[in-house]
Amino acid sequence: MLLLTRSLGRLATAAVRSPSALPARTMFTEAIPAPPSVNRFGIAKVIAVCALGYAAGATLAHHTTDYLEESEIFVYEDDDD
């Protein structure tokens, strides 16, 4: 176990010393970092996920009420007063 710990310690120390392990903005070859990536179709993805979630919830509620009425646990009665 001690040998494994020492070898891992050497690997970690070597990784810290290598320039490729540093973040891109601190590397000597790249003074200005690259521009951030742009998410394509961001609002369309949000709308699609919301619509699918809404539809799945409505379907689950519909099937649940059908089951409850079929089992006579809950029976809808229209009261005309």
UniProtKB/TrEMBL annotation:
Cited InterPro entries: MCU_reg
Q: Which GO terms describe its biological process?
A: calcium import into the mitochondrion; mitochondrial calcium ion homeostasis
Q: Name one Pfam family in it.
A: DDDD
Identify the GO cellular component terms for this protein: uniplex complex
Top-rank taxon, per record: Eukaryota
| Protein name from the UniProt record | Uncharacterized protein
